[in-house]
């Protein structure tokens, strides 16, 4: 079996699940080498996962002719420069979310990849998992009738309670919308299609925040980005949705998406995960009905989008977690901020088309042709 070789840039907090899945679950990819600014992290990954190469820096990785796709899982404010340099070195790139926190930079990366004939895409790929794919099937099959609206929220008191190094979440590229919003917006556009117009309001509720996790307990962080973000979206279909993300509030049900239809309501599981309970409230039934999942990838399958891109590289077909999707999500999220600043609606310029659904059959770890 021919395998696509992956060069892994950044071995931080989210890297273990990528390392685990790309070495054990997905059969058509191979991690050929890793690098990290903190060398010990990369050394640990090489030893634990039997990875052939340890690069001194990302430029050595980019120059390696054996690397087919660069996996960029650096911090959000580093995504743009790492991805740009990889593209300039002629590498396909799969990046953690967001593509870039800056819309102009995101557009530049998409244009650069197109100019060079390279594949560019990235997280989140949770929309490809069992739960959201089943929800898409239910919507597309008419289980809730005509879709007329949606509501989504992510409510949290902030990652400083558990993250060992939470400062970056409150700096450029962070905040609840750019940190968690990509999961929700990506899920919504895959369930409902492209967005046409948005409006938003934002606030920094607490300009300074203490770190409450053990490593840096008591240190004070300056907050540079909005931590309370409300947005409204008009989809091209005519449906209207709203989204609320915050790091400022304690709440009992912190992760929710609801899709409203003319015949019922679909309760979508947390889009940060691949699994979760799906509930259907039909007009003829007073109680929600739990629906069975009919697709694969119910467990934490991060790296699924990269494996799908690798299959596209081998076969020439389209891939699902593509840069068109990433750019549309970045533009929507950025527009919430711009709308708040300018007190006006913002027209979305980027185009987006849903890719084909996942296959129900087949072997886990080998993507469809």
Outline the fold blueprint:
Elements: E1 4-9, H1 15-24, E2 29-35, H2 39-49, E3 53-54, H3 58-62, E4 69-72, H4 79-88, E5 92-95, H5 103-116, E6 120-122, H6 130-140, E7 147-155, H7 175-179, H8 181-192, E8 195-203, E9 208-210, E10 220-222, E11 228-235, E12 240-246, E13 255-261, E14 264-268, E15 278-282, E16 289-291, H9 304-315, H10 323-342, E17 346-347
Parallel strand pairs: 1-2, 1-4, 2-3, 4-5, 5-6, 7-12
Antiparallel strand pairs: 7-13, 8-11, 8-17, 9-10, 11-12, 13-14, 14-15, 15-16
Helix pairs in contact: 4-5, 5-10, 6-8, 8-10
What is the strand content? Answer: 15-25%
What's the CATH topology name of the largest domain? Answer: Dihydrodipicolinate Reductase, domain 2
Which structural class fits the helix and strand makeup?
alpha/beta
Largest sheet: 9 strands, mixed
What would you say this structure looks like, in words?
By secondary structure, the protein is α/β, with parallel strands linked by helices. The chain folds into two domains: 4-122, NAD(P)-binding Rossmann-like Domain (Rossmann fold), CATH 3.40.50.720; 127-291, Dihydrodipicolinate Reductase, domain 2 (2-Layer Sandwich). The chain has helices at 15-24, 39-49, 58-62, 79-88, 103-116, 130-140, 175-179, 181-192, 304-315, 323-342; strands at 4-9, 29-35, 53-54, 69-72, 92-95, 120-122, 147-155, 195-203, 208-210, 220-222, 228-235, 240-246, 255-261, 264-268, 278-282, 289-291, 346-347. The strands form three sheets. It has a nine-stranded mixed sheet with strand order 16-15-14-13-7-12-11-8-17. The protein has a six-stranded parallel sheet with strand order 3-2-1-4-5-6, with helices on both faces. Strands 9-10 form a two-stranded antiparallel sheet. Strand 1, helix 1 (15-24) and strand 2 form a beta-alpha-beta unit. Helix 4 runs parallel beside helix 5 and helix 5 packs antiparallel against helix 10. The radius of gyration is 20 Å and the shape is globular. 49% of the residues are buried.
């Amino acid at each position: 079996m021919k395998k696509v070789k992956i060069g892994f840039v950044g071995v931080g907090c989210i890297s273990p699940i990528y390392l685990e899945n790309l070495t054990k679950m997905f059969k058509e990819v191979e991690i050929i080498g890793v690098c990290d600014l903190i060398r010990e992290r990369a050394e640990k990954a090489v030893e634990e996962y039997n990875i052939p190469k340890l690069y001194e820096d990302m430029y050595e990785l980019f120059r390696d002719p054996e690397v087919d796709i660069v996996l960029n899982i650096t911090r959000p404010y580093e995504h743009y420069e790492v991805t740009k340099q990889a593209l300039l070195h002629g590498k396909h790139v799969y990046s953690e979310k967001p593509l870039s926190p800056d819309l102009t930079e995101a557009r530049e990366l998409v244009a650069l990849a197109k100019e060079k004939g390279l594949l560019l895409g990235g997280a989140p790929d949770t929309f490809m998992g069992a739960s959201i794919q089943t929800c898409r099937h239910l919507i597309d099959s008419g289980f809730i009738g005509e879709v007329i609206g949606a509501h989504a929220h992510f409510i949290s008191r902030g990652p400083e309670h558990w993250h060992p190094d939470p400062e970056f979440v409150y700096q450029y590229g962070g905040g609840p919308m750019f940190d968690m919003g990509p999961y929700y917006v990506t899920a919504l556009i895959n369930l409902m299609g492209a967005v046409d117009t948005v409006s938003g309001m934002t606030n920094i509720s607490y300009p300074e925040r203490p770190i409450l996790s053990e490593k840096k307990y008591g240190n004070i962080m300056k907050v540079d980005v909005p931590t309370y973000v409300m947005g409204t979206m008009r989809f091209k279909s005519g449906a209207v949705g709203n989204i609320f993300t915050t790091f400022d509030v304690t709440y009992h049900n912190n992760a929710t998406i609801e899709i409203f239809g003319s015949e019922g309501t679909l309760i979508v599981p947390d889009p940060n995960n691949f699994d979760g309970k799906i509930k259907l409230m039909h007009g003829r039934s007073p109680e929600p009905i739990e629906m069975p999942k009919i697709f694969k990838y119910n467990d934490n399958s991060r790296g699924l989008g990269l494996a799908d891109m690798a299959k596209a590289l081998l076969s020439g077909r389209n891939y699902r977690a593509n840069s068109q999707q990433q750019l549309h999500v970045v533009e929507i999220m950025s527009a919430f901020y711009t709308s708040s600043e300018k007190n006006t609606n913002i027209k979305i310029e980027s185009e987006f088309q849903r890719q084909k659904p996942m296959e129900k059959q087949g072997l886990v770890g080998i993507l469809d042709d």
